[in-house]
TrEMBL record:
Membrane-crossing residue ranges in chain numbering: 14-32, 39-64, 76-96, 103-124
Organism for this UniProt entry: Agromyces larvae
Protein name: Alpha/beta hydrolase-fold protein
SUPFAM superfamilies reported for this sequence: alpha/beta-Hydrolases (SSF53474)
Protein's UniProt keywords contain Nucleus: no
Top-level taxonomy: Bacteria, Bacillati, Actinomycetota, Actinomycetes, Micrococcales
Length: 441
């Protein structure tokens, strides 16, 4: 029952509307405390003052505490101001009222706060379940299938799409779960939360083929939630005889409130974790192709910056980069915090960790692909994406920039970026034939 509650979807319009209607009914009840001009004047003042306090709270959260770690939706201001206005009205109902009105007023405060939280969460759309909102994973444990040491039947020659045929009895859907026991952190000591693993149907059959691998990182604040990339690959495999990459969604934060910026720093040895813990574990425990061209490092927002940095610094491991609305460089939203808190005031070290500078130092790249996606309604991140894409192209990477029309810096950008970004990489990963060259005019 507890898991069912945590797995309840909380971003659907019907869910949010229900809470809004309940809150509206409670506001009407609280307004009807008395039928006098004096009371309605007091109620109006309470609502107005509450809305001002709510606006001030958001301003502090955004401009002082940087609690959102990225662009702030207009809905945040509206929901917060509305909630504080209603809460202030409830507080004013505690005086000169009977016990049952006091009880309803106290309960209303919790309802108003929950309604605002659900409304704000729905505006972003990243935490799609109650468990995700509370940073509680409900994913079932999954045990990876390691590569066979002595395959019964050697794989045919040629690209995978050319010879693969789905065998009888292949599952219709892939599986997503939390890596049983987690990915060990012996080299780094980084306290990563358990990674999630997606295995497409082609990975679940006897004598399964080696598949491409995607190591993906979500944004900050966030969790290693594999549901978005699993949805993308489920849609793809349904049209490609069960073929899709294996996806490993890892934690580059250790905590939603911490941004270690994907380097080794006092906030955690993230690069050591990824390169010396995750990568060797994936090679030993996942039935994936070995060549760098079949390995993609990807991420969304904060994770997109991490992916660009890792792919640029380690082309011998990751032949492909997929940056979905990625930040331009570590700490782009607060450079002073990054410089002091992560790089110890060393400006040279900070500059060297910026993806554009990494690419300039490591180029020219012999065989690296970089795909950058950005929402058309995301001006805050667009310029940085364009600069990183230009740096990648200058450094010799095969570079693609994709604009997700109508998307901001929320779930629509993540969903569209994964869909279109992976579509650009699928031929490179030999999951489908490359597009035919345009006929000569």
């Amino acid at each position: 029952m507890w898991d069912a509650l945590l797995e309840m979807r909380i971003v659907d319009p019907a869910f949010v509307t229900t809470w809004l209607v309940v809150s509206g009914v409670l506001v009407l009840y609280l307004l009807a405390k008395q039928w006098s001009i004096r009371w309605f004047l007091v109620a109006f003042i309470a609502l107005f003052v509450g809305a001002l306090i709510g606006g001030a709270v958001v301003w502090v959260a955004v401009n002082v505490l940087d609690s959102f770690g990225g662009p702030v939706q207009d809905a945040v201001w509206l929901w917060t101001a509305g909630a504080f206005a209603a809460i202030m009205l409830a507080i004013f109902n505690l005086w000169g009222s009977r016990w049952w009105r006091k009880l309803i007023a106290v309960l209303s405060i919790g309802v108003f706060a929950a309604t605002a939280a659900f409304g704000i969460n729905a505006a972003y759309g990243i935490n799609r379940t109650l468990g995700a909102l509370l940073h509680v994973s409900t994913a079932d444990p999954i045990r990876p299938t390691p590569p066979p040491t002595d395959p019964a039947t050697p794989a045919p020659e040629g690209p995978l799409y050319a010879w693969w045929q789905a065998p009888e009895g292949m599952p219709e859907h892939g599986v997503l779960g939390e890596v049983e026991g987690g990915v060990p952190n012996e080299a780094s000591g980084f306290p990563a939360r358990p990674a999630q693993l997606y295995l497409p149907p082609a990975a679940l059959v006897e004598n399964a083929p080696r598949l491409p691998l995607v190591i993906f990182m979500m944004g900050q604040p966030g969790d290693p939630d594999g549901s978005f990339i699993a949805d993308t690959f489920e849609a793809y495999q349904a049209e490609h005889a069960g073929l899709a990459p294996i996806a490993l969604v890892i934690d580059q934060l250790s905590d939603p409130t911490i941004d270690p910026m994907c380097v080794d720093s006092p906030r955690g040895a993230v690069e050591t974790y990824v390169m010396q813990d995750v990568v060797p574990w994936a090679r030993a425990n996942l039935n994936v192709q070995a060549e760098p061209r079949f390995w993609t490092v990807g991420g969304y927002s904060n994770g997109g910056q991490c992916a660009t940095s890792f792919g640029a610094r380690h082309p011998d491991v990751f032949g492909n980069i997929l940056s979905v609305s990625g930040e331009e460089f570590p700490g782009a939203d607060d450079e002073s915090d990054a410089l002091v808190g992560v790089f110890g005031g060393n400006q040279a070290a900070y500059d060297a960790a910026k993806p554009a500078n990494i690419m300039a130092a490591h180029g020219p790249y012999a065989d690296s692909w970089a795909v950058f996606t950005i929402g058309s309604e995301d001006p805050r991140y667009a310029a940085g994406v364009e600069r990183n894409a230009a740096a990648a192209e200058q450094a010799g990477m095969h570079t693609t920039v994709i604009t997700i029309e109508g998307a901001g810096h929320v779930a629509d950008a993540l969903i569209g970026g994964l869909r279109d970004g992976f579509a650009a990489l699928a031929p490179r990963l030999e999951l489908e034939a490359p597009p035919e060259a345009a006929p000569a005019e």
